[in-house]
Amino acid sequence: MELYPIFLNLKDKKCLVVGGGKVAERKVNALARCGAQILVISPRLTAGLQDMVNRGLIMHRRGYYQASDLVNTFLVISATDDDATNHAVAGDCMKNNIMVNVVDDPPRCNFFVPSVVHRGSLKLAISTGGSSPKLAKIIRQRLEHEFGPAFSEFNKFLGMVRKQVQEQVRDPARREQILKDLVDETTFLMVKQGDLEKAKERVNNVCHIDRCQP
User: Fold this and answer.
1) Which helix (H) or strand (E) holds 203?
2) How far is Cα of residue 4 from the mean position of the Cα atoms in its chain?
3) Are 152 and 182 in contact (CB under 8 A)?
4) Residue 1's pLDDT is what?
5) DSSP state at residue 11
6) What distances in angstroms separate CA 193 from CA 53, 142, 145, one per listed residue?
7) Of 61, 84, 113, at which residue does a domain stop?
8) Contact of 148 with 190, CB cutoff 8 Å
9) What are the C-alpha distances in Å from 122 to residues 77, 84, 148, 198?
10) 146-184 pLDDT tens trace
11) Which pLDDT score is estimated for 147?
């Protein structure tokens, strides 16, 4: 069965993490950078998670998972070392059509967390469908080398240029053509080689002020 790739907008969505260990902490950090409203259920927390609670970044209920914790929950991650708890979390989520990921237990998941290269708003996600997290990690490390930090700034720059074109060029055909021409293989290689300013200049030449007038 193939998986349908998707990027979720989790801003202000209630996300539940069951577990308070190191794995849970990694999952919470990933959710937090997406602006989720995070509730952690666990009798104990790592120092890192406790610090996030103290700073008001996440909520915490000290104790053990209960089915009532799922009320108004958008997404759930179960990261405990207790099989009975993970089984209960997965079963309750499945019955209520809630997205759930049980760490290192693919049969109890209805979504998998990919290995991700973060370059600002540019995300490169790799998934093996739960078959081999190690392979996904190796691929991610190679992509991190190929797509350096410059791609973060360049992608942000492209977003600003795209907005300018959409606002200034009223003719749909001209607007579409300009947007298509903003990036090509040469521009990509400039960014990859670290020639960010040259890449930006090339984009600006495509979107010359004369072309971007209504």
Assistant:
1) helix 196-206
2) 15
3) no
4) 72
5) T
6) 41, 15, 11
7) 113
8) no
9) 24, 38, 11, 20
10) 999 999 999 999 999 999 999 989 999 999 999 999 999
11) 95
Which stretch of 2-6, 65-69, 86-90 has the lowest confidence by average pLDDT? 2-6
Is the model's pLDDT at 209 over the cut of 70?
A: no
Token pair recorded at residue 164:
């300018």
Domain of 200 in residue numbering reads as 150-206
pLDDT value, residue 214: 43
Q: Is residue 5 one of the residues assigned to a domain?
A: no
Q: How many domains does the chain have?
A: 2
Tokens 């193939």 — which residue?
2
**Residues 158 and 78 occupy one common structural domain:** no
- Residue at token pair 């790739």: 5
CA dihedral 206, 210, 211, 213 (to 10 degrees): 130
Q: For tokens 């540019």, what's the residue?
A: 122
Say what the pTM is: 0.84
What's the DSSP call for residue 183? -
Report the relative pairing of strands 37-41 and 14-18 from DSSP bridges.
parallel
Q: What is the pLDDT of residue 207?
A: 77
CATH for 104:
3.40.50.720
Above 80 in pLDDT, residue 211? Answer: no
